[in-house]
Design brief:
The complex is a heterodimer of chains A (about 700) and B (about 120). With about 700 residues, chain A is α+β, with helices and mostly antiparallel strands. Chain A has five domains: about 130 residues, Four Helix Bundle (Hemerythrin (Met), subunit A), CATH 1.20.120; about 120 residues, Alpha-Beta Plaits (2-Layer Sandwich); about 55 residues; about 180 residues, Histidine kinase-like ATPase, C-terminal domain (Heat Shock Protein 90, 2-Layer Sandwich), CATH 3.30.565; about 140 residues, OB fold (Dihydrolipoamide Acetyltransferase, E2P) (Beta Barrel), CATH 2.40.50.180. In chain A, about 40% of the residues lie in helices and about 20% in strands. Chain A has 23 helices and 22 strands. Chain A has a six-stranded mixed sheet with strand order 14-18-19-17-16-15. Chain A has a five-stranded mixed sheet with strand order 6-8-9-11-10, with helices on one face. A five-stranded mixed sheet of chain A has the order 20-12-13-22-21. In chain A, a hairpin with a 4-residue loop joins strand 15 and strand 16. Chain B is of the alpha/beta class and about 120 residues long. Chain B has a domain of about 45 residues. The radius of gyration of chain B is 12 Å and the shape is globular. The two termini of chain B are about 15 Å apart. Classes of the chains: A alpha+beta (about 700), B alpha/beta (about 120).
Chain lengths: ~700, ~120
């Protein structure tokens, strides 16, 4: 038994590629329905996908791809004209396929029910082309009768030919062949057998007819009359040279046998035939299905988490990696050598090289983790197309800077919030074509998605030329939901869109407005260490700007002391650091402490109190002014250590629940310092005041 | 040493799968090619005892590659790899001189039987 599980990862990776390619190409096909090259390419992808699924023994997936492929075949042969209904159906299939693949990743068992609806739809299309009902190719092998070479439908003319040939030194043989029960592509199989025979003579008669045989329209047995100068053994050898034969018999043609009552000839088994049970199972079933097997209780899954994350790396980067590592080995040896000789000078030299190499390595590893945002973006044109169709709007997605790179973790988490924003733009932003026309805008709306790097951050903007946000509408909507808007500026009103549970949609559509608002997007971006801004102008459009850190695992941090403990504060939230005197600079209001910063009173967070650390007696403190969620907070710490690049280590799940720390890092002396999660701390402060 | 086989398929997955089947059954994989042109080039370079040739591949497909190989070496033994629904292509390949064909999904036993036969 061969174990397919080894190939799972590869299978998933290649399947994802093919699905993406199919999505892209099918989308293109819609705008260029006559592009045959495209159809061919699509066909090939679908075909490969099917082959892969079948080899893995994923029957359900195979079935769906097979039916889908048929459709492409109709496009190819011109039997079916590409139209957007078909394209939508294909998209549905592609979506279902990626769902199936996801299920397989999670080691769920697939059932035919998952695809029944689509199969029915596809079959409808198919039968509209072929004019007949396509029935599932049931290959239930009937109870097999013994094989006999007796020809039942021989005609007078055939006998004539045989007689004449005999006079010229030809032998006539009566041959019956039985194919393996599970033989696939029976037509070509017969064709191949005939081709081999005809190299040595002539096949003058077959039962059933050649046409039926070559179409594969028979069970497993067929008969033929073969004229050749070869002797019986040679003929047998010729036939034996074919694969997938269950049995055959060949004998000199004897006229009298073929009339009336048949004298049964012996069944001669084809030589190498390890499996003798007559009703061999269909091939697909004989395939091992390591994944679909129900797991035994208590048995660990074969694949941890079923999702071994993998990433494709540019080979040149890996080569450089290897070079650097080998260089490192050289200097390690030098160090070894120098330390033996106690040469401080040499140790220093080598150490310098080692530190240069480690920083190069660090940089490179980060680069290896980088992934182009196109990984996420490529799905969107298709999505916008579907959205436009569903909403009856006209719109176009323009993508820029898709080659921009981000840490893989960020990239893979990005799709959800982006989809949310895109849906939002399509649903609430872009107006109906007629409305647009009245306003003097082009009927077709444009949504522009761009990504670009800016210093240590990557910005992703999503801009639509739709109706923008109307502060007045926002106000009414907010009030109707019981949100207090008194004294809010237009800007604040507009930003109510990020208020939990706020939705401007008049009715809930299945596109956006599923109850989760943009606050969810905001939260997600925040989790990724990024920020979300919005600019909107009434009737001109709305623009969302997502700012993300290039990488998650190494950040610039401000190292501080709270009491006697060392903590790290991510530098990107730090606006400014000021030295304050506890008594003079902090103002106590009725319920809280505030600090005057740029003419604004901002809340003060006493970290020592919050983290329950004994504070130093000194009243001299540092206030780190941080910006979180559009508002400033002053975070008090006892001492500043300095700026440092730190590697983020994830905290144990139990510690993560504290929601005060982003992670931990190891500092120079080997001690562990916790990294403060400023966003959650500020959030916590706000909530505690409510 | 086992017989040398050149595996031609555009999907890495399929190549690995086939390679695994072959190597577990005493065959030696001479080389792998991922399209028809590469197949023709690698055939000439490695002179394998047998070629397994996928039919659908981008650019130069399996049938063209078969013809190319046959033109270089009339005695070349090429086994086509096909999926269901490719009757016509398979027949065309047989006409062009393919010695046999195997059908995906690959069944180890069938594949080995076919290759053994093709080489006997």
């Amino acid at each position: 038994m061969d174990d397919n599980s080894v190939y799972r990862d590869l299978f998933f990776e290649e399947s994802d590629d093919h699905l993406q390619q199919l999505n892209d190409n099918v989308l293109e096909l819609e705008s260029e329905p006559d592009n045959m090259d495209l159809v061919n390419e699509i066909f090939r992808s679908a075909h490969t996908l099917k082959g892969m699924a079948a080899t893995m023994g994923y029957d359900v997936m195979t079935k769906l791809t097979h039916k889908m492929e048929n459709m492409f075949d109709f496009f190819k042969s011109g039997k079916l004209k590409v139209n957007s209904d078909y394209i939508s159906l294909i998209f549905k299939c592609l979506d279902r396929l990626s769902q199936l693949i996801e299920d397989l990743r999670d080691e769920k068992e697939l059932s035919n029910q998952q695809i029944e609806d689509l199969l029915a739809e596809l079959e409808k299309v198919e039968s509209s082309v072929t004019g007949k009902k396509t029935t599932a190719a049931s290959q239930t092998s009937t109870a097999q009768s013994p094989l006999t070479s007796v020809q039942e439908q021989l005609e007078e003319a055939d006998l004539d030919v045989i007689q004449k040939a005999a006079a010229e030194g030809y032998h006539a043989y009566s041959i019956a062949i039985r194919l393996d029960a599970g033989t696939l592509l029976k037509g070509p199989r017969v064709f191949l057998i005939m081709e081999k025979l005809e190299q040595e003579g002539d096949v003058i008669h077959t039962e059933p007819s050649v046409d039926l045989l070559e179409n594969g329209d028979f069970e497993t047995d067929f008969k033929l009359v073969f004229l050749t100068k070869d002797n019986l053994d040679e003929v047998k050898q010729n036939i034996e040279g074919n694969s997938e034969l269950a049995a055959f018999c060949a004998e000199e043609f004897a006229e009298q046998k073929h009339y009336g009552a048949a004298v049964k000839s012996q069944l001669q088994a084809a030589k190498p035939q390890p499996q003798t049970q007559p009703a061999a199972k269909p091939v697909a079933k004989a395939q091992p299905k390591p994944v679909q097997k129900p797991r035994k209780k208590g048995e660990k899954p074969a694949h941890n988490n079923a999702r071994n994350q993998s990433i494709r790396v540019d080979l040149t980067r890996l080569d450089r990696f290897l070079n650097l590592v080998s260089e490192l080995v050289v200097y390690r040896n030098q160090l070894d050598d120098a330390s033996k000789r106690n040469s401080e000078e040499e140790v220093k030299d080598s150490l310098e090289q080692v530190s240069r190499l480690t920083s190069e390595l660090q940089e490179l590893v980060l680069k290896i983790r980088m992934q182009q945002v196109s990984v996420v973006f490529t799905r969107f044109p298709r999505m916008v197309r579907d959205l436009a169709r569903d909403l009856g709007k006209e719109m176009e997605l323009v993508i820029e800077g898709e080659e921009t790179e981000l840490d893989k973790t960020v990239v893979s988490e990005l799709s959800e919030p982006l989809i949310h924003l895109l849906r939002n733009s399509a649903d609430h932003g872009i107006e109906q074509p007629d409305v647009r026309e009245q306003m003097g805008k082009p009927r077709k709306g444009t949504i522009k998605l761009s990504a670009y790097q800016e210093g240590n951050r990557v910005n992703i903007t999503l801009e639509d030329d739709g109706k923008g946000l109307d502060p007045q509408v926002m106000k009414e909507s907010a009030e109707s939901k019981g949100i207090d808007t008194t004294g809010m500026s237009d800007d604040e009103l507009i930003h109510l869109i990020f208020h939990p549970g706020f939705s401007t949609a008049k009715k809930v559509t299945n596109i956006s407005g599923r109850g989760v608002g943009l606050d969810a997007v905001m939260a997600k971006i925040g989790e990724l260490g990024g920020s979300l801004e919005m600019k909107t102008e009434l009737h001109v459009g709305t623009k969302f700007i997502i700012k993300l850190p290039l990488t998650l695992s190494i950040i610039q941090a401000l190292m501080v002391k709270i009491g006697a403990e060392v903590f790290a504060v991510p530098l990107d939230v730090v606006e400014r650091v000021v030295m304050i005197n506890d008594e003079k600079d902090l103002i106590k209001t009725s319920d809280q402490e505030v600090y005057r910063f740029q003419e604004e009173l901002i809340p003060v967070i006493r970290t020592a109190h919050l983290l329950q650390i004994p504070d130093t007696a000194s009243t001299k403190k540092f206030a780190i002014i941080v910006k979180s969620d559009h508002s400033y907070h002053a975070v008090l710490v006892s001492e500043l250590i300095g700026q440092q690049e730190i590697v983020i280590k994830k905290l144990d799940a139990a510690l993560q629940k504290l929601q005060k720390y982003q992670g931990a890092t190891i500092i120079g002396n080997g001690a562990v310092a916790l990294i403060l999660d400023i966003n959650s701390i500020c959030q916590g402060k706000k909530e505690s005041q409510k | 040493m086992g017989k040398k086989v050149l595996i031609v398929d555009d999907a890495v997955f399929m190549r690995m799968k086939l390679k695994d089947i072959l190597e577990k059954n005493g065959y030696e994989v001479a080389d792998e090619a991922q399209n028809g042109q590469e197949a023709i080039d690698k055939y000439q370079a490695t002179k394998p005892d047998l070629v397994t040739m996928d039919i659908t591949m981008p650019d130069v497909d399996g049938i063209e590659a078969l013809k190319g190989i046959k033109a270089f070496d009339g005695g070349a033994k090429v086994v086509m790899c096909s999926a269901m629904g490719q009757q016509e292509m398979v027949m065309e390949a047989i006409k062009a001189g393919a010695v046999d064909f195997i059908v995906k999904p690959f069944d180890t036993e069938r594949v080995i039987k076919a290759l053994d036969k093709a080489l006997s």
